[in-house]
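Margin note: ligand = iron/sulfur cluster.
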Amino acid sequence: MNVKITSFEQLKKSFKLTKEEEAYSGGNNSLPVSITSHFLSLIDENDSGDPLRKQVFPTVNEEVEEAMEYIDPLAEVDHSITSRLVHRYKSRVAFLTTDICPMYCRHCFRRRFTGNMVGPAKKDEIREAAEYVGNHKEVTEILLTGGDLLTLSNSQLDFMIKTFREKAPSLIIRICTRMVITAPERIEEELLSIFMKYNSAPFYLLTQINHPRELCKESIEAISKFINMGIPAMNQTVMLKGVNDSVDIQEELANKLLFNRIKPYYVFQGDLVSGTSHLRVNLGDTIKIEKELRKRVSGLAMPAFVMDLPQGGGKVPLTDCYVKEHIGKKWIIETLDGEKREYPDTY
Ligand code: SF4
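Resulting structure:
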């Protein structure tokens, strides 16, 4: 289907919706409804349980707010230096370049900010943030995030990168975007030339690919353009119920990413974001999937499973404990197959 969906009304007219989708009213903290024509073309219209559809078709479940859910689960507002700059970890900051995305993911953890239609950061906001980063030498990395960074025009992007580079030439810049899979046609020569122009320090491409089918010919080509000019690509997957909460899917995704030179970096346990409980995977199930996946894929293909703790508690790894006991001068460690091995203390 070669159309772009820009409203729920249009979605209703274009698709046969399920009862839960039909009942969506756009209530509580809702994100806008927008689905790119490229992403739509990957969805199987005849499958109401399609894992790509689940990420972008709203349902009435979004209007349910569970206990312990928050509109800002990572307490980004408490760690904000300016309206756009978040400084939560000592060595890195996140700059919220825009609240606009070409497509809105129903699991978005930043829904307090995303899709409010405020638009790109103004020049003064960019200068203010760059000044801060330049004055804080402990900051070695910046995440240019949003919203989606690549919704900025090329001239807006050029100004932003130039301003940060002038104040902090050795800052590592993470290009955080889903547009390589939502609108791969955006990755054109003029855009890429901006990164080449300001390469006094490394750029990294950070993508969010949640299901192997998102990695189609067009998106692989788009990501390859970054890699071919020396920008490594890393992927962050969000664990989502009915989308990728199985070892088989995670295995296929990890291997497909690695084969296409994209490092599987993180798999995130769903944050406690208001209105997303229907997409959240039980923590115990996530840990079981991590354990099984570790047996199946190589070290290179294995992402780190992590959780961003509520109320700004930071990131912690999610893994089973293999170091079982310390007896006398020996440690008892379990193999991935459940056998035991001993390892002595060293003095
Ligand atoms: S692309 Fe990112 S910021 Fe935009 S809706 Fe999806 S998860 Fe949220």
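The chain has a mean pLDDT of 96.
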